[in-house]
């Protein structure tokens, strides 16, 4: 999958057609076409601005500091149903857990693809698998996760009653969400590694470094911006995903721990994230409290905006650094 | 890279490199195995539903929602499990929604991509890049929420007339949850994916080819469309395929705005049909997750999942095949 970050992060090549000539001499159809392109470009900006501003207004209207520190509870009006402390914390927890799985594995796969990649057949299979994974709907990963984590030997990761494994827990959701982030991490890191010219590797080999040492000490530090970019794009997908959370996190309104060990019990239990909270509280969901949904969606949008800014900053910093070849 | 590897390995036959390669290779195999397992598991779990219905599974017949209800309840009773299921309304809804939004998004994305690469002034480029990325990153549930609370009421109040509602009232109620809402929002969701890939493809077009055309006195607009866009065709296909895959798999947003009724919008109704509700495959799965506890329902849901998986795999293959011609010229888009 080609990443979205490349729109901005790629250096702007000198354009062949970009000249300061007016379009006055063009045919009418061409000028209409150009006007249409301008219109669509502006339309996209306007849609984005509308989404952000609308959610900003709704967020300011409905978001109260108290919402961020109280847990959801049942009640008859929006003033009684509490806030979204648990979903907020769970979002952070689950994002951290899935990135803790996706980033190391993603880097490992990218390193293998870029630096080893033998036998070539396996490399091609891995490439298409990653591409396939990038195009796999998250609902399928959720269905797969349901099957996987209901297996008896994975019972220690979720709630069990007798021999029946419930199969829904933070572990299950994080594992499947990491598969969602994996292709983005792999693609980005791999692009970063491949952008490093081979003479850098040769220089390292020439002073007697092994391939492992070269990768660890030279290549990965040099590819750090792409690791960061890939992680943030992956994080964006993890935070924004709903299907996996709804199916595999159990979608209980508050955290529902399983067992007695303090942290482990929470992670084995069920919960909800901001996305499933929004889904639940939308008019189509069971909660039907649009005010709460707007407030949570606003917080979600702020997270995404922050990530977007992060990708931008990393991209800009990465651009100032060029290999001379 | 391969040549380096061989050279180094001859010098250092054993040791940490060998170990690292094997460890990483094993990890890679595990991930590949996991994806393969996904195919096997989902297909296996969904097989009973296909086996009971045969090819009629894909056909039309009866009310899908009633069938789903019967399948679900049959799981709780001691009587024989019911499997009768005709998924055509769901499939048709998926085709309609994804097809039309891909067409709309493709045209818009192509113009925007051309604009970004060749015609937008610097400041506009600087704005459009982050804008496109942000649109791609907005969670689908947020799109769904905006659709439910803004677009759906708007369609219901302003676009659907009483006459239109009356004309189909014996069959279906029109309340704004519609094909139109789903298509519009899905188009906004998938267009950024297309734009990102189209832009990469257009940027990868060798400058000399464009300059050659300009040197012949062809204006920049024509040059881009006749040379640039044509050269970037594989990237266009790849982007479209990826966006289609995303659209086919979109469950949450579509379950919110599409109306969640197992109804096949009928173009024969005239223009009203774009206001008719429906429910695509992926949304059906997420709407019925409670049904996972009922064995026959579970098999049916996994069968729907298997159809999605098959289309995703097919699309992924098509995308891969589309990229090959570009590689021949050493252009990696």
Summarize the structure in words.
The complex is a heterodimer of chains A (325) and B (333). Chain A is an all-alpha fold. Chain A has a single domain (85-318), classed as Orthogonal Bundle (MetI-like fold). Helices cover 67% and strands 1% of the residues of chain A. Chain A contains 14 helices and 2 strands. Chain A has helices at residues 6-9, 28-62, 65-69, 85-116, 120-135, 138-149, 170-194, 198-206, 211-222, 224-240, 243-248, 262-268, 274-281, 290-319; strands at 160-161, 164-165. In chain A, helix 8 (198-206) packs across helix 9 (211-222) and helix 13 (274-281) packs antiparallel against helix 14 (290-319). The two termini of chain A are 27 Å apart. Residues 1-12 of chain A have low confidence and may be disordered. Chain B is mainly α and 333 residues long. Chain B has helices spanning 2-11, 16-53, 64-74, 88-119, 122-137, 140-159, 162-168, 179-203, 207-215, 220-231, 233-249, 252-257, 281-287, 295-328. In chain B, helix 4 packs across helix 8 (179-203) and helix 13 (281-287) packs antiparallel against helix 14. Chain B is globular, with a radius of gyration of 24 Å. Chain B starts with a helix and ends in a 5-residue tail after the last helix. The model of chain B is unreliable at 1-12 (pLDDT under 50). At the A-B interface, helix 1, helix 2, helix 4, helix 5 and helix 6 of A face helix 1, helix 2, helix 4, helix 5 and helix 6 of B.
Structure at a glance:
The complex is a heterodimer of chains A (325) and B (333). In chain A, 67% of the residues lie in helices and 1% in strands.
Number of helices of chain A: 14
Shape call of chain B: globular
Major sheet characteristics of chain A: 2 strands, antiparallel
CATH homology group of chain A:
MetI-like
Residue runs with pLDDT of under 50 for 5 or more positions of chain A: 1-12
Proportion of residues in extended strands of chain B: under 5%
**Cα gyration radius of chain B (Å):** 24 Å
Helix content of chain B: over 70%
Largest interface: A-B, 110 and 113 residues
Q: Provide the structure class of chain A.
A: mainly alpha
Number of strand elements of chain B: 0
Count every beta strand of chain A, where a strand is a DSSP E run of 2 or more residues: 2
Radius of gyration of chain A: 24 Å
Q: Give the number of domains of chain A.
A: 1
Helicity of chain A, in percent? Answer: 55-70%
